[in-house]
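Researcher: Quick sanity check before group meeting.
Model: Go ahead. Protein one:
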Amino acid sequence: MPSSPSTNPRTARNILTGLRSIMASRGNAQAKLNQVVDRIAEAVNSEVCSIYLRRDGLLELFATHGLNPEAVHVTKLAMGEGLTGFIAKNVETLNLDEAASHPDFQYRPETGEEKFHSFAGVPIIRNQRAIGVLCAQHVDPRRYSEEEIEAFQTAAMVLSELIGNADLVDDSLIENNNLQDAGADRLSGLQLVKGKASGYAVFHQPRVKIEHTVADDTEAERHRVYSAFDKMRDQIDQMTSQAEFGVAGEHIEVLETYKMFAYDEGWSRRINEAIDSGLTAEAAIERVQQHTRMRMRQIDDPLLAERMHDLEDLANRLLRIVSGQMSTAAQMGLRKDTILIARNLGPAELLEYDRRRLKGLVLEEGSLTAHVTIIARAMGIPILGRVKNIKQFVREDDHLLLNVDENILFVRPSSAMEEAFQAQLELSQKKRETYSALRDQDAVSKDGTRVIVNINAGLRDDMAMLNLTGADGIGLFRTEFQFLVAATLPGRTGQLRFYKDVLEAAGDKPVIFRTVDIGGDKPLPYFQPSDIQEDNPAMGWRALRIGLERDALMKVQARSLIEAAAGKTLNVMFPMVAEPWEFDEARAVFEQQLAFLRSRKKQLPLKLRYGAMLEVPALAECLDVLAPRLDFLSIGTNDLTQFLFAADRSNPKLAERFDWLSPAILRFLKRISDTAARLDIDLSVCGEMGGRPLDALALIGLGIRNLSITPASVGPIKAMIRSVDVSEAAALLDNVLAEAPANPRDIISNWAKAHNVDVG
């Protein structure tokens, strides 16, 4: 559970006591701000305390203790300019022992601040926007203590109320109504759950307005929070027990993890500490929530960030309960087809919505591994994530067209755009009908070549796609998904039950289980494989490298898989194999567990087949050594491509720089294909390359006869295979490899059109 700094409320309470008397006193707002900076500077023994407020789009110095008083209302900074502008723009706290060391540092001579070295600043927040900045400075280079920073943040909350009531900043910042003219009626984002939808914009969470921040009776505020916690936990218990997904699935584990957060004592303790400092119940919850938001901006780990999103979801719920403002869009009810807009969304909050009316979801944040993404996939709700600053472009009840397949959101579309979108929907429906007709048809080319078309999976719910798509089997089952959605490391019993469910759902169709591939872009917050900070985790301590060092993890998984496959064929594949000895050691772990279970008279698999993923190019040089011990080999095109080109696929500047149909990739794959055929190795490709019709055409031309792809790609790939003559495709690829043109994609595409090959 993420935690905030341990807080001694004494400093914050002293500041709040002083601020309360200042707010209650007579005098204008400027006089009160002058007293505020004096009071805060005295409480934390700081030589400078200053308040900057946003006016006319700039940050203006409104009051100061310690700087040149003539700079008040003279010094102004743009958003993002200097340290103060950095804090306001990013809504982020700074604490520096040497201000000049920060890349955004700017010196303003009129303030007389040249002698001060240390700097701390916190945003003054209203309606989740920075309306100003509270700063402190000191001559000596020192970092302010965590207690002092917490005191500044608490003071900033009270200042927000004073500033809002005194009309000191732009009205648009207080009322949150400064919507930009959305002349750009097309917004882009990240594809989280595929699909298309038409509906009207509804904002998930109208902001709870906190009217009072300073408590009159601390014990009364504490009782209000306890009561709100009890009510919130009852709501969560009721929702998780009524989830309509059946009895199994990763979404159930997600909801249990979420429930764990609701009962976390550390979170309630931090809220109580904020109340001890003198805040009201609402302000205390918001205080802890602001700290969580700031932590989230600093977290690179997507899984840890997701757990903090769950915590914020619960904080929003608790805030609405304690304030009596229970008016989320879900509670008010959806009156028409809705595209829901949210910064982020917790899994329980999504479950509150009427599934008949909720057509799509647009998030300002969101990730592929987010809990809400897993739940939405089970509900069949398309999600577009990472749509930045959406509230600046979308109004309540705006008509929206959501096309997650192309990562696009159309805002207030014209009639022509609506007609085009409707035509797309109709075309998509016709394509689905065409592909559905191929469900029971084998992927056989025009010249009679049979291609195995498997699907990739990782969740229980994915197993239903076997029958829906007519796929031949599961060519890649990512076992790490079970680890990614769990709150703690899954035990042997849970893994055994999970793998057994998967095999039973597959029936007589084969399933290839890839042993757990964690690390890299899939870290687990509860499992730290290495103390070393990795600059390039994709090429670091991950996948099989972790499994071989932490062999207890691999032994538990091996025994679970072997027991689950009793009486069946078990296919196991090891990821990230670079040298034959790694494969041998991994296989030995399974053989040891097999021998152990045999000694215990346990029923064993009828057959155990071992495979390796070729992602590390080095393995291609040793296939002849490995072949006698290898039952099958699968090329992982995603990682292989980035390793061959030394190009991080998560880097947006490089994501589209290198093409799968480049001569280098094609020649490498052809060499592997020929080697596998010569050594009689069962070869397949699992990765995004195999799920794109034109790229899959090239793979088939290279001699690949087994693909494992996303379920949505099965229909298009089958259609392509059934429209091509494989011998002609092979001749085309021979020419491409020999000539190594600069534009092989164009050449292959033009050839496909000329030969009526269905590449979409």
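Researcher: Fine. The other one?
Model: Protein two, sequence then structure:
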Amino acid sequence: MWMPLFLVVFFEARKVLKLDDLGREILRVAIPAALALAADPVASLIDTAFIGHLGAVEIAAVGVVASIINQANKVTIFPLVNITTSFVAEETTVKEVVNNEEEEEEGGAAQIESEEEEEGSEETGESEDESIGSGYMASSESNGSPSIDEITQISLQTYLEENVSPNVINEGEEREVRRSGRLKVPSASTALIMGLILGILQTVFLTLLARPLLGLMGVKSGSAMLEPALKYLILRSIGSPAVLLSLAIQGIFRGLKDTTTPLYATAVCDSVNVVLDSVFILACHWGVTGAAIAHVISQYVMLLILFCKLITHVELLPPSSRHLQLSKFLKNGLWLFARVIAATFCVTLASSFAARLGATIMAAFQVCLQVWLTTSLLADGLAIAAQAILAGAFAQKDYHKARATAARVLQMGVILGHALVVLVGVGLYLGRGAFSEDKNVLLMITIGVPFVAGTQPINTIAFVLDGVNFGASDFLYSAYSMVLVASITIGSEFLLLKSNGFVGIWIALAIFMLLRTIAGFWRLATGTGPWRFLRALDT
């Protein structure tokens, strides 16, 4: 029963660093994706460095707000982006297969016509056009075989019935890959509509409930953190539509296996953010207000770049409302919504506990958490590659490629995780002075270094396993397993906070990531759900 686990982890392990077709495909998607994902947290680290020199109260206030915004963004972005990536990858893969099949059949038709022309010319000496017509009619009428058009239609219908999931393509849906030189992908239109609606709702939610949310995070009316936190939260909420639309577009590009475009857009966005931080914080002395304004402007710049690039590749107006497939998004989005609520609540609760321990501990926790999330998200590059490639493999029912892809990205994840231990440990210890000048804050950061660095291998595998299971569209299992993991984690956070304080919070977060890894492995280990095929494949 446990054999599939070892098959996936160790399958063709000697090829883990080999640049074969699969290796190149993974790296082509993973490297730009990892850089793009890391670019935004790096910008947040730069923001933290700028704000950190304003004082411990300011950085603590921004840390609380960052946790709130992270929770809100994860709840909306995570389901949207991951569903979009999977569905776009499935749709484009199926349409490529169907298009190739049609091209092959057209080529076969041309060859048949050519042969009939030669035979007709030799036997009757008829003209070229008559020869083609008589040869074609003779072959179809004499033996009762279907015409070329009928063969194409039958072949296409058989493929759709036997190989395409109802979630990928609906009966009667147009099967042309390109229209007016642009891709026709219904999931792209749906993702943009959902992103816009969710972005507006998030702005309204964060603005109207700013004070209550800060109160839940431990920032009460008498706290010195309240005023800067309130300003920062309200201003940052204005950027929510840009954030969600940008991430929706990134999901579309990921599904198309184009992670280079989001990388360029993110690099420009972060560069704008850093420049504006320098102007608004250092030159204009606007403090946390300037940091928030800089961040919002940079997000809208990123949205503009991505949207202008998208409309040159994808047709965004579907032929009719039924092509939007809203029910498909909502059904799977519900499972991922539950999953991300459970996952991010654990991190948000940890931030809340840190805030209750005082501004010094919260400031140190914010620095450690930003580094922890930034480096761990490097593994999301592998996760995105796994999701996009596996979604295509499952759509084609290419289970051999699915197994090979899952194995390769997990093996790469192991190597990356151990490399990050050294990189993060040395980097955070030597560079902690860039985030604060407060000796007490620096002391607490030093205490957090072993936890931030030591959990990197676990974090990496957990993120990669997320991509593997999302690529298999195993959203239901991902949801209920995460709810179980979160329930255990929340209990451990309450227990460890009372006895160990700052260290207890980090122990609880380490337990959280370990349980996530075990839950992700369990599905493959038992060979259940979409991974049932592992039992049937030859070892």
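Researcher: One line on it for the slide.
Model: Residues 1 and 526 are 6 Å apart (CA to CA).
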